[in-house]
Amino acid sequence: MIFQVLLILCVILILVLVTKKNKYWIKRGLVQEDGIFWRFIFGDRSLAEYCKETYDKYKEEHIGLDFGSTPTLMVKNLDDIASVLAGDFQSFHHRGIFLNKNDLLADNILFIGDYPRWKILRQKLTPVFTSLRLKTMFYSIDKCAQDFVDLIESDEKLREKPFNILYSYTTSSIGAAIFGIDTRGQNAMDSPLLNMAWKVLKPSFFTHMTFFISSLSPTLFKMLQLRLFGEYEDFFIGTVKRVFESRRNAEKRNDFIDVCLELQKNGIMSDPNTGYELEPTDELLAAQAFFFFMAGADTTANAIHFSLLELAANPTILAKLHDNIDNVFKDGKTELTFEDLDKLHYIDMVVNEAMRKYPPIGLIQRLCTKNTALPSNNMQIERGTEILIPVYAIHRDENLFPNPDLFDPERFTPDRVKDMENYSYMAFGGGNRICIGVRFARLQVKACLARLLSKFTLKEQAYEPKRFERSSFSLRDADAKYELVPRNMNK
């Protein structure tokens, strides 16, 4: 620990020298905001909040940031955002996070910047989330949701820290449905992945600095041979290897593990358009499993958590949601089927609005990999420039969402969604690198809220957070509480 502290202090000193008097954007005639990086490192809130302050401060659509050795441009214009995330994807496919070859778990489709490598893995893993596979996975997800509610009913103390128990649910449901961890005959909430999930995804100073060094000073990151998730490799890769071995001759379940085993059976993966080849080793596929786990556990828990906080603050909306859920479970029905999910339309609206106000990922970054230009004003973007898309700020922009601080699920009726500007809503990212597990995440959320709110309601309380946790990517408020009250269905 002492070594880590000294290392980080040395890095901060180096970055101070690197960022001193950097006037890259001023020389190009743009406004430039200095000091966001330092305000975050030594501040008390999320990076997305500091970015929002800058977003609101300037009327200009392009704001230069003094953000380390990499020139960084905050982009507001939605046409430019569409170009970065989709239209000119070849120039902006890189997330701006650099990896070392020894960082096995970071070698996944979330972080990979090598385009051919990312492309072939994305293509091969997309079939994990077909409708047929999702329908098959739903049994495991619903089993976890039922066990989650049973656990809350049996132990009132667990309700004192609601975010923690939600984390248990999202971790266990990913483990059961994606990793193929068998939950038959046992409580699905007893997940072997839970402790690791909490350590990996809980924001910390060292995690922030490691990510920042990777994106702001790749040379220094490589020189120090830093790894984003090195301490979890033995446990996680070992766990996935054991699952692979146990499933090689077992009955197929139409899940992620089956896809992995099929890839290994077929041998070398190749892209017919480019000729790029990649071997589906246990380590490479374990890294993809780690991605699903890392990308889904925290973000989904936050989506459910903020939905419940807003429902507690809005009893009329809560009552309408209860009606929607009760209609699915009417006449003593206890089963929740995959087909029932389409009837839970109001859950979708509530969760979409919660993720608008509190997007799971508060900002998106992309690295320019070749000289190009933004479409709105033909601004020239040099190779090596970082583009920052302030999702949280855009979601709270009153020009895009009138009265943005109001929690209003009616924004997401089908008619109003059709009129929503493209890339004004990016709860799951956008463009070519949009979250691959969007549909799976929605199954998790709907099963959890349907099961939970069929048995419980929420005591009315206001929710007006002054700030969120000091996280470099997400919006979190894990200490926020709400009171779950058992429903009297006989009234």
TrEMBL record:
Residues binding heme, per UniProt: 435
Membrane topology category: Peripheral membrane protein
UniProt keyword Iron, yes or no: yes
Alphabetic keyword roster: Endoplasmic reticulum, Heme, Iron, Membrane, Metal-binding, Microsome, Monooxygenase, Oxidoreductase
Subcellular location: Endoplasmic reticulum membrane; Microsome membrane
EC numbers on record: 1.14.14.1
Listed InterPro entries: Cyt_P450 (IPR001128), Cyt_P450_CS (IPR017972), Cyt_P450_E_grp-I (IPR002401), Cyt_P450_sf (IPR036396), Insect_CytP450_Detox (IPR050476)
Keyword Electron transport: no
Family matches, as Pfam families: p450 (PF00067)
Entry GO MF terms: heme binding; iron ion binding; oxidoreductase activity, acting on paired donors, with incorporation or reduction of molecular oxygen, reduced flavin or flavoprotein as one donor, and incorporation of one atom of oxygen
Record field: catalytic activity: an organic molecule + reduced [NADPH--hemoprotein reductase] + O2 = an alcohol + oxidized [NADPH--hemoprotein reductase] + H2O + H(+)
Cofactor: heme
Gene3D superfamilies to which the protein is assigned, alphabetical: Cytochrome P450
Superkingdom of the source species: Eukaryota
GO cellular component, one term: endoplasmic reticulum membrane
Chief localization: endoplasmic reticulum
Family membership noted in the UniProt record: Belongs to the cytochrome P450 family.
UniProt function note: May be involved in the metabolism of insect hormones and in the breakdown of synthetic insecticides.
Protein name in the entry: unspecific monooxygenase
Species in which this protein is naturally found: Manduca sexta (Tobacco hawkmoth)
